[in-house]
Amino acid sequence: MNATEQSFFLPSHGRMLAATCFAPERAKAAVLVVGPFVEERKGTLPAAVKLARKLAQDGIATLLFDFSGCGDSDGDFADTPPEAFGQDCEAAYAWLAQVFPSVPYMVLGIRTGAGLAARLAETHPEVAALALWSPVAGADFFKQLAQRRMVNDMVAYGKATESRASIEARLQNGETVDMDGYPISGAFYRWLHEDAGGSRGRSPSIHLPTFLATGGHDEKAAAAAFPDAPALTRCALRYPPFWNTVGHVDLSALLGETTGWILPFAGEQWSVVSGQNFGTSELQNFRTLELPNFRTSRAVLDAPPAPPTHGALFLHGWSGDRAGPHRLFVRFARALSARGCLCIRPDFIGRGLSDGDDSDASISGMADTAQTALDMLRKQLPPDAPIAVVAICSGCKVAIALASRNPGISRLMLWSAESMGSLRSAATGSRKTLNALKTYLRKLTRPETWRKILTGKVQTGMVTKALVKHETRTKDEAAWEDSVLSLFAKHRNPVSFVFGGSDPDAAGSRQAYARYCAKHGIPHTQHTIPHAGHSYYSEAWTRELIAITMSEMSGANQ
Hints:
The protein is α/β, with parallel strands linked by helices. It contains 17 helices and 20 strands.
């Protein structure tokens, strides 16, 4: 069955939520996906998109949306009152019911979104079924978030800068605390612990068919949170914690079982939606970029309030999407647009909401997407308007490839740039392995780590992969990168590099690019943010990164 994908904004109590609908020509059911918070949104998005496409082929429409202050939606997470999240669920469900009338409705909740999904189903008796992926209780979610922060602190400073008890005491006093680049407010902390996404302290009463997949994670919490589901189907599959895994995870078995469970709830009556436009003339910030092989990349425009005077193209990293790590691209693009800059942020093929599978990605293919986005940006700017490229991680390779083809790019802003071609030291993998090894050796000195190993709670196979399996390239890929560097040698516009002081690859890349730029007469600057990691997971590091980049770009656009 043919299906369409449309991204648009839908209103929720004065806020605008970024949403995407996967709609078949005729829908016989509709599913609302309620995702998780903070960086787990990025980790779960690929699976949610694949499920939505799979369901659309079977005649079932799916709506994905970002909560207020998350993803591409309005607002800042720290300033969003917790009650807004329930309101967002209601607004998204109301939209789905309006666009797809008279069909069965189902709700899928993922991680912290599971509680909200259950509350929504509880208050809407017409919901036919509820599916839950790896539900986690609010208190357990915060515990895991705090553990991740302390591990990152250990990498940056050699020790955790604050205990979990101290963090919780501050939040209980109403302070806002930086948790890996997300400012967590005291109100959000209380909501996690007291409301759990709904009425205070009370588990939702579930009296409809429920599909529960824990994957072997937080099983006790899931059982305690949903004790009253009389028609419960437990999925026995085990899978990695894909919401917190760098790179992409094969979840085809989970997607298959979930789809197979949902399909019988579809009705006999069809809702015809072919050709329907879900957006309005005032909400045209979403763009589609048509690529070779009938592929489509999807992008967001951040437009200034007045006609733009300059532009910026944002290029995300290998396993990221257009929002950037901890919403970094969203924040910076909106800051630039307030200064008259038109920004475009595409998802690469196989990433975010763009077509393709994760295995379809390549640096050269990413460069083709970037070229299409650059061409679109140019058409919407005055002639000769300066255009900067802002990139992170692998996106920096794409930026260099793009600049080698387009000498008119005014400036490259490269965050945590990876070394290309022959610039990459043979010690790169060794540094990554050594850095991981140091982290695990520290963990092995703790009694609780050994208890986890002895009871099978540590996935030692994943540890082995982290220690011995680092990034590799084929000879052809390395040769292609060298061909890009040979062309980039003629680049004469400024290049600004920013590195994190605790990024294990920063020193090698910084030295390699400094030598290369000096050799070929490329004007460049380099900045290092002390202690920052590869993706700048701290509010202080984020602010410094944005300030440095804004200062450099202001000079380029005068």
